[in-house]
Write a structure and sequence with these properties.
128 residues, rod-shaped, mainly alpha, 4 helices
């Protein structure tokens, strides 16, 4: 056997092993960098989704508040949404509903148009 060929062969094997290890290290580093980028992208996506959800929530609350302030009747879904997301406004809505029902009952008990007009005037003075 030729020892010089064996030495060359051994040297080539070592060289190829080192080259393979370098390639594996580069691949691992590249995958890690891609993973970190995905994480950063995912954080950005999550942040944007949260902003969108917050904006939708604010828009919904604003629409319900406007509806309540204009004197319209809130649906059961709107009331449950308020109960979950804005308890203070929910209490105001429940109070307005109670007052509306009380006013209707008082109107039913009026016997004349004059009684109705007096009741309306009294209610208007309460809101002024």
């Amino acid at each position: 056997m030729d020892f010089s060929n064996m030495a060359e062969l051994s040297q080539k094997i070592n060289s190829m092993t080192l080259s393979l290890q370098k390639s594996e290290t580069k691949i691992k580093f590249k995958k890690k960098a891609e993973s970190e980028n995905k994480t950063e992208r995912q954080r950005l996506i999550d942040s944007l989704q949260k902003q969108i959800e917050d904006q939708k929530k604010n828009n919904s609350l604003s629409a319900i508040d406007t509806k309540l302030r204009s004197g319209k009747v809130l649906t059961a879904d709107e009331l449950s949404y308020l109960k979950k997301n804005n308890p203070e406004l929910y209490q105001k809505a429940v109070e307005a509903k109670r007052e509306r029902e009380q006013y209707k009952n008082e109107l039913k008990s009026c016997k004349t148009k004059d009684d109705v007009q007096r009741l309306r005037a009294a209610k208007l003075l309460n809101f002024a």
